[in-house]
Sequence to fold (1063 residues):
Amino acid sequence: MARVLGTSIKRREDPALITGRGKYTDDLKAAGMAHAAIVRSPYAHARIRGIDTSAAEALPGVLAVLTARDVAAAGIPGVVPVGWLLPDLKTPAHPMIAADTVRHVGDAVAVVVAEDRYVARDAAERVAVDYEPLDAVADVVAALEDGAPAVHEEAPGNVAFDWEIGEREPVDAAFASAAHTVELDLRNNRLIPHAIEPRAVLASYDSSTGEMTIHMTSQNPHVHRLLMTLASLGMPEHKVRIVAPEVGGGFGSKIHHYADEAIVGLCSMKLDRPVKWTATRTETNLTDAHGRDHSTRCALALDADGRITGLRVDTAAAMGAYLSTFAPAVPTYLYGTLMSGQYDIPAIHCHVTGVFTHTTPVDAYRGAGRPEATYVVERLMHLAGEATGLGPVEVRRRNFVSPDAFPYQTQVALAYDSGNYGPAMDRALEMIGYDDLRSQQASRRDNGGKQIGIGFSSYIEACGLAPSAVVGSLGAQAGQWESADVRVHPTASVTVYTGSSSHGQGHETTFSQIVADRLGVDPEAVEVIHGDTDLVQFGMGTYGSRSAAVGGSAIARSVDKIIEKGKKIAAHLLEASAEDLEYEDGSFRVAGSPDRSLALGDVALQAYLAHNYPDDLEPGLSATSFYDPANFTYPFGTHVCVVEVDTETGSIELLRYAAVDDVGNVINPMIVDGQLHGGLAQGIGQALWENAVYDESGQLVSGSLMDYAVPKIHNLIPFELDRTTTPCPHNPLGVKGVGEAGAIASPAAVVNAVVDALAPFGISHIDMPLTPEKVWRAVNS
Amino acid sequence: MYQAQFDYRRAGSVDEALSLLQENEDAKLMAGGHSLIPMMKLRLAQPPVVIDIGRLDELKGISEAGGSVRVGSLPTHAVIAASDGLAAHCPVLAEAAGHIGDAQVRNRGTIGGNIAHADPGSDIPPVLVLLGASVHLQSPSGTRSVAAGDFFQDLLMTDVGEDEILTHVDAPALGSGTGAAYLKFEHPASGYAVVGAAASVTVQNGRCTAAGLVVGGVSATPTAVDVSSLVGTDLSDDAIAAAASGLDAEDPIGDIFASGDYRVHVGKVYGKRALAAARDRA
Fold:
């Protein structure tokens, strides 16, 4: 049988999704279903003097209006928990419905349930909330200033945490003796995730059984169930079923447990009937956890040969008004630990202050900490290339971790298991025609007019947080393994139950390829089940580019267990010793006796009949694995962006974008390319267009798609992709992860390209997004 | 968002639409709905009655006669962009329509709805002002026409009366020796023009005999630039740049993407480029 691993078979998910037959949460209807609309604060910071619900309740069709009083009366915990604890982390309560104070525009203050969603919305407008507006602070730097309005009394100075990694003294010494130093003050702009499908919840409580079924937009149904059990609703875990039907994108925003899920659940319990809520686009912009929002001062020290001797980073990272589910981990263990990049850096110190602001909470968004780290390191490397005179290529090459240095222990906790950074850069240079581009650039510089710039980003990513014990020691309140239950049916078709639920990635296709390849069956004979806590025993979900490396490895382990058991059954039937059996192309064979073999189907049938069966073996042919990886995986690559800058208007045009990525072994090249395309769109979007802007009063002024620029197809160009392959040495598939690579690498590549184009104007930095006006002002200042 | 409750009436004729307008206070006319429906969903507009005029064939024509083109209020942007008649007689109008939104917007949005909404970043208004077009309105008491330059009164405000329907637009066809161009600096989020420059020049015997430049996006209404200095010149790049630099906006509009100052600057640059493109087509 031809190998199916590494082939671009088409996504089995797509026929339904692209013909409108996909069932998303908002497509679901339950008998007797009512509709919820959530009343949200129009103020960034205000005291609630009182809430008058009578006008809303009087509207025909309104079933209930609930406020914080009803949460208290329900006798449930009623708070939204944080799932990652740092030392001395301030964890002020996040009430699922604000009781006396609202802390960001969009904070929930009441919920209306009505017979239809229009009446619910009309009634929500009739809920009269008496607010006493208070001073607010939305900016991460302003929030740290003396006298800034306090977001929480429990967090003096608005500091949520103060965290550091690496050692300060060796870094100071490196700077004291450096031949070259470069430094930079930068902002990493706040982003809104913008999954095409807005968040939605359909909660169905049945008082006769005490069971609650919640269909929702979730990247990790079991994690949502656990958090609703431990906090918010406080329901018994075995009485809650979470189902994630088709989920239309998430980019991290559907990892987190939001107040809304608990609010809708409470409504269903109160009314004893199903209640549905679907966020409007306005609501998603105000309440989906945002990404990034850092203010950073950073500096790099180099010796006379251009070798890095020290890196110093100090970051203020916005948390927003409350700590979202994994928020404290993002600018710490997913950021500071990546500061070595692809480079052998002997001394690194990174200090991060987590800051409360009167804004939407900030949490993991595609890349989560790693794009921010890559941006710091790769912007500094660009400046180092200039300062040393080595240029962007040579300064990187000179500092790459040598291929014979792996496993490589960084100064910031991570140990890279494998890597070979030079070839990816060589290939990128070759693809882009680097020398030609430099001569074109030179002639443009001589002739004036539109200028060309070339920008590099040589990134490292850490995918698949692991192992659980280490992650737990760093503050995670969850394990980081993944489960897979693989069942071979009597007719030798296969069903896989995976804890890694999909929200658009194509898990059903790639996971079926893993099973098909390892078990020697047709991919069409493999069904993949995910996203339902009643069907899958437990799972950690899909985020952090973990599904192939962790979820896929769990499936591979289960398949291996099935083959081992099958050998025992086959050995019995063939009257041979199990040790003498080989498994290949879907058949068990006695080594050296090719005519003595049994197809998987023969063995599977006998496993269930158990008529002619080994005495010491249980019937059945299925296996469950809980795979806990030994380490993160470390994809890497070099991206090169070429831009043309119209210095008369400041407009930027993308000319070329070449990306050479090493994501280890590839299961489905088409899906890997698709993941890169999506990540690049979002990373380039961050660099050029996307920006969540708050005014001084804490109003989100880029709260709609009329103001917040998500990249459109005509803004982008065809991407030129290639790969090198350095398999992950510690998982059974040799895969690493690709979901976030594009978003991690590209912002620095784009900004470096623009800055490179503008070097003749003495410009060394412009903060993202590089809007034409900013570029024009920089050129003219 | 979900719009507030409203009644929907579909008019079978212009006359029926006019009487529905009279019968229903605060009613809104809807053609393609691409300006009205977003406003309703945000609840910025809450008309009690929406009168759908989108299917009135009598308002859908595009014709040319006697050196003038007539465009009904209901052709969609896609229809205008692809119109052979306009390509032959007034290509700059088709060019501007092709810049509006994306394919889905162009397939629904209409020229009448576009100019009646009068968004300052809209692509059509500066072209109509450049061309010296007239906008025709009908009410129960009769018909009247308004010069495009007078039609756009302020931000989202036009000369359409509460009892009136915009029926069609007349614009002079471009004569021989005349070139025109519309250049757009697009807002990356909304797709509206941050700046849209519409320019025309007429050349006879190598000399410019007439020139016009109107810039949208800079002010609440299209801003005409006095480029009469070009008349009599050979339309050199320097002369064009000097003329375009006359763009002046007393109270330029700005947003988080582009400030007023910057819009004026880009208006000059795009004005210059539009004039040069018009010259090359003349």
Remarks:
- Chain A has a mean pLDDT of 96.
- Chain A touches chain B at residues 117-118, 121-122, 125, 280-282, 648-649, 651, 688-689, 691, 693, 701-702, 704-710, 712, 715, 771-773, 776-777 (CB under 8 Å).
- DSSP finds 19 helices and 28 strands in chain A.
